Amino acid sequence: MNDTHVVAICGSLRDASFTRIALDHALSVAADLGASTDHVDLRDLDLPVFDPDDRDAGDADELRERVTAADSVILGSPVYHGSYTGALKNALDYCGFDHFEHTTVGLLAVGGGAFPVTTLEHLRSVCRALNAWVIPHQAAIPSARSQFDGDAFLDEKIEERVGTLGRRLVEYAHIEPDPNTVESIENVGGDD
């Protein structure tokens, strides 16, 4: 086992979530490379709608502890109205620079229809504002209902792409971070 810890945060609250299946695959590849893993299922956490006057509501401390423990984080979300889910946004609002700064982040989006690029772009922007280091490789799963048979991928190329994401999260977990981004300098977050 190496000293890398990879955490996945699933932005889907559906019981039969393709996002969760894909994240589990990426984590299994990371584990095969010797990393320890943790899948943060937001259904299991009590996270009320974020209120900056109550940053420690519900299970916020548990979420932040699990994210802070990560060398790499993979954020996964289904496409909701061309972006990522409110559940994932809410979870990210409970976190800040202390939890993501200089952390390697991988991105995964799952779409019911066409290629889910905008979701990935939005997540990349948020991670840059948190001063995370987002790996260039990202995984997108379009037309998700036709891509799985139970927990198994039907398209080997998509399975490989998701697996590569898990591998990159281990390979780049300890990369030297870039200097702070303009977005992170100008965005203190949550101070309105």
From TrEMBL:
Cofactor names: [4Fe-4S] cluster
EC number: 1.-.-.-
Keyword set, alphabetical order: Oxidoreductase
Enzyme class: oxidoreductase
GO molecular function, one term: oxidoreductase activity
InterPro entries (alphabetical): Flavoprotein-like_sf, FMN_Rdtase-like_dom, NAD(P)H-dep_reductase
Chain ranges of the NADPH-dependent FMN reductase-like domain: 5-144
Family: Belongs to the SsuE family. Isf subfamily.
Protein name (record): NADPH-dependent FMN reductase
Species the sequence originates in: Halomarina ordinaria
Organism phylogeny: Archaea, Methanobacteriati, Methanobacteriota, Stenosarchaea group, Halobacteria
